[in-house]
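User: Please run a holo structure prediction.
Assistant: Happy to. Please share the sequence and the ligand.
User: Here you go; the ligand is EPZ.
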Amino acid sequence: MQTFVIQGGRRLEGDMTVQGAKNSALPILAATLLCQGESTLTNCPKLSDVYAACRILGSIGARCVMQGHSVTVRADAPSRAVIPEDLMQEMRSSIIFLGAMLGRMGQCSLGFPGGCELGPRPIDLHLQALRRMGVRITEENGILTCTVPKGLHGARIHLQFPSVGATENILLAAVLAAGDTVITNAAREPEITDLADFLTKCGAKIEGAGTGTIRIRGVKQLTGCEHRIMPDRIVTATWLACAAATGGELRLLHTDDASLTGILDVFEEMGGSCSRSQDSICFSGRKPIQPLRYIKTMPFPGFPTDAQAIVMAVLCKANGTSVMEETIFENRFRHVDALVRMGADIRIAGRAAVIRGVRQMHGAVVSATDLRGGAAMLTAALGAEGETVLTEISHIDRGYDSPELALQAVGARIERK
Ligand code: EPZ
């Protein structure tokens, strides 16, 4: 198993180019299945989750070729309406292929996506919505078999919770369905808008993406197009956290300012100073870190749950006590034990974490527990005194494209072993 060995206590300074967004690339890769002809996605991050999505496309019968940061997909004759069990277990977000396979092939067989480190991760909202669109779903021995006996049709769908994945699956099923679909209480995350932009370029009729109400009018056919994946707002937040934790100064390039709602203001509240343009940010973490009296994770445009762990890593050295409440996932504090091993003073009370700032953190041997928890440990290690050995870094490789190279370029002493 690979590890990161980090020598902390060095200020990060220089320019970093932000990668394409994992959580946009995955649903858009699924969406290419809906298209005749060829789709080319540029600015696609080289991540294990992206490779898994390409393997799913290949197993369905599409041709998927990744060269550098471009992926070309041709899905003229998908032949196998099955999401392989091993890939469903490897990557929970494989569920996003369900809507696309139903839209293109009218059927899909898949295993229940495993719960993950963050909690049970149910898919009830996905299945309820698809049933309203004419999908018949049976379950036997943990395998879901989905068919559309009378074809997919539009429906009015209200989501009890603005689920990102459910909103994406409904979009993917609706664009080729008969008639109109209206989603209310839809997720508003920027990745939904990027997916809708891709589908619209392919010929789909979608209005309201990025708002709580999305209207889709089904069309007969979609044709592949070229699309540049949007910048990753959580990777942007991660590099800001690394600058804050080390008292450094970074210029982040190829960012997407509109997607950073709920993120940049938090870093300013913690004492950071940002000067921002549409596609770049100059950030200084020189000033002492200020605590956040109370912050809670919320659906977009609130403070994103994916940034909770990395902001907590910064708050470990704040001048005072912070309280963070995790309202989206049941079990998203698994990184706390590692931060405490590195000298943090954190107490968990249900869905809340109380972080009392300490003067200094120190290196330790710690294991990444999940993707963003691992990123939090990396952030804390860079700002700690001494050496940290971070194991189980395959979690981090799911969402960060060669993070050690990106960080070395701005002065971090980090080695992949
Ligand atoms: C997406 O997951 C992201 N993943 C997650 O990022 C992100 O944390 C999450 O949205 C929230 O923003 C991808 O886009 C690939 P949800 P998703 O459906 O779609 C409950 C990362 O680190 N729920 O909005 O699975 C669910 O249990 C990952 O990059 C139901 O109850 O998130 C959770 O508590 C982690 N029933 C909450 O909603 C359902 O049918 C949010 O889930 C679906 C979800």
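The first strand starts at residue 4 and ends at 7.
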